[in-house]
């Protein structure tokens, strides 16, 4: 009989074997059409929307909180930066983690399209290895996961600032997801590749309107000064409503906006709520980020649910000089009961339970 240490070693070797070859060189992988505009680093890795990307110092091991705020505000995919629209929104989990996260699980990552999640699992070193990107508890080696569970949700229920569990005193944005619709359980490189190829077959280029195109062009390129555009775009996001994101001031990366003189970003955002006509003037302003964000805002038929919620929260917090609150268009109220979504969620949960039993 083998000692426990040997058994663990055997399991680890088996996991290594299953995931060997999971991370392929980007040149070997056909990119989804919707990722075609992403710049690549000198090794050919796509520079995905959510990572810190000062030119030459792209950091695949980190998430930019400023970029997460921009993605939340404009409801964009954290890989390709195009809109999530009514597609399922996907998050990466490991093993049976999802079953212990409650009905509306919270993630420190911004959601992505299905094809983008599976593409990242092919080419990004930090998604493709099931051991990577697991944060400090994992790196301390308590447990090695062997299954990558990629979960698709109907909607982003809420985005809030929250104290980080990994770094004391360091606030981060959390994305609360609702309506689990489908999952991919990937137990090795072959699975991951097959799932990606199937999703790629269904992929179509994303049709963008002018305002969306402008936002994405700015976000995916360095600024004219040669800096990561995440910072300036986060500033524009504050002005059109991200200033009202709950507990946003706990997020240290927002210091520059939260501690601006006279609370400039919050005050301007409040004025924009009180006098929406102001925003029209912003569209011809010199700052390309503010101009693009305002024209995006004006041309939406319906705001993304997260931004709409922030604006509603904001309207409760601000008053004009006469003590009046802003009047904003409210489409508030609980979303209608969606029986199809409930059926999909139950099926997805049942599939997860089945997968767990099989593994034992
Ligand atoms: Zn995407």
UniProtKB/TrEMBL annotation:
<feature type="compositionally biased region" description="Basic and acidic residues">
    <location>
        <begin position="336"/>
        <end position="352"/>
    </location>
</feature>
<feature type="region of interest" description="Disordered">
    <location>
        <begin position="321"/>
        <end position="360"/>
    </location>
</feature>
<feature type="compositionally biased region" description="Basic and acidic residues">
    <location>
        <begin position="1"/>
        <end position="19"/>
    </location>
</feature>
<feature type="region of interest" description="Disordered">
    <location>
        <begin position="1"/>
        <end position="25"/>
    </location>
</feature>
<protein>
    <submittedName>
        <fullName>Uncharacterized protein</fullName>
    </submittedName>
</protein>
């Amino acid at each position: 009989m083998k000692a426990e240490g040997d058994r663990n070693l055997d399991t680890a070797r088996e996991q290594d074997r299953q995931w060997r070859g999971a991370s392929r060189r980007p040149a070997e992988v056909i990119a989804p059409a919707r990722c075609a505009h992403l710049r690549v680093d000198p090794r050919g890795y796509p520079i995905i929307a959510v990572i810190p990307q000062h030119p030459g110092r792209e950091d695949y091991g980190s998430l930019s909180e400023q970029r997460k705020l921009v993605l939340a505000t404009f409801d964009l995919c954290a890989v390709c930066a195009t809109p999530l629209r009514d597609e399922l929104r996907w998050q990466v989990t490991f093993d049976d983690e999802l079953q212990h996260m409650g009905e509306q699980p919270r993630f420190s990552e911004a959601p992505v399209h299905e094809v983008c999640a599976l593409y990242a699992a092919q080419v990004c070193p930090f998604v493709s290895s099931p051991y990577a990107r697991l944060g400090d508890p994992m790196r301390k080696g308590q447990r090695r996961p062997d299954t990558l569970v990629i979960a698709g949700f109907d909607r982003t229920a809420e985005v809030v600032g929250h104290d980080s569990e990994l770094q004391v005193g360091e606030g981060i944005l959390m994305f609360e997801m609702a309506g689990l619709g489908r999952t991919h359980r990937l137990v090795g490189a072959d699975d991951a590749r097959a799932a990606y190829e199937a999703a790629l077959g269904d992929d179509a280029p994303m049709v963008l309107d002018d305002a969306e195109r402008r936002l994405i062009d700015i976000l995916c390129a360095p600024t004219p000064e040669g800096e990561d555009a995440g910072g300036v775009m986060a500033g524009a996001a504050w002005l059109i409503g991200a200033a009202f994101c709950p507990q946003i001031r706990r997020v240290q990366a927002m210091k520059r906006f939260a501690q601006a003189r006279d609370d400039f970003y919050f005050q301007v955002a409040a004025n924009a709520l009180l006098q929406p006509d102001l925003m029209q003037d912003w569209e011809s302003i010199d700052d390309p980020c503010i101009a693009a964000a305002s024209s995006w805002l004006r041309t939406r038929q319906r705001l993304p649910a997260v931004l709409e919620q922030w604006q509603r929260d904001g309207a409760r917090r601000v008053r004009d000089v006469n003590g009046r609150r802003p009047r904003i268009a409210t489409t508030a109220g609980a979303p209608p009961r969606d029986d199809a979504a409930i059926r999909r969620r139950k099926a997805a949960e049942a599939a997860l339970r089945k997968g767990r039993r099989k593994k034992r």
